[in-house]
């Protein structure tokens, strides 16, 4: 497949995995488009934010409870 077809498939798989998180009790909402995602948590995001950064995930915080993954 070409570049855009491959990207479309990777995006679909990424969101398929993200949607599996929706049933977790600490997840309020998952929203976004493509590979830019906002995940709203019920509790403080500081600990999760630091864990993602140590895993070299490009992530920012939207206080108090939303993580933005790029």
Sequence of secondary-structure elements: HEEHEE
Total count of strands: 4
Largest sheet: 4 strands, antiparallel
Mean pLDDT: 94
- The radius of gyration is 13 Å
Which band does the percent of strand residues land in?
25-35%
Can you tag this structure with a few keywords?
single chain; 70 residues; 37% helix
Structure overview:
There is one protein chain. With 70 residues, the protein is an alpha+beta fold. The protein has helices at residues 3-19, 46-54; strands spanning 27-33, 36-41, 59-62, 66-69. A hairpin with a 3-residue loop joins strand 3 and strand 4 (66-69).
Write the layout of secondary structure elements.
Blueprint: H1 3-19, E1 27-33, E2 36-41, H2 46-54, E3 59-62, E4 66-69
Antiparallel strand pairs: 1-2, 2-4, 3-4
Q: Nutshell version of this structure?
A:
By secondary structure, this protein is α+β, with helices and mostly antiparallel strands.
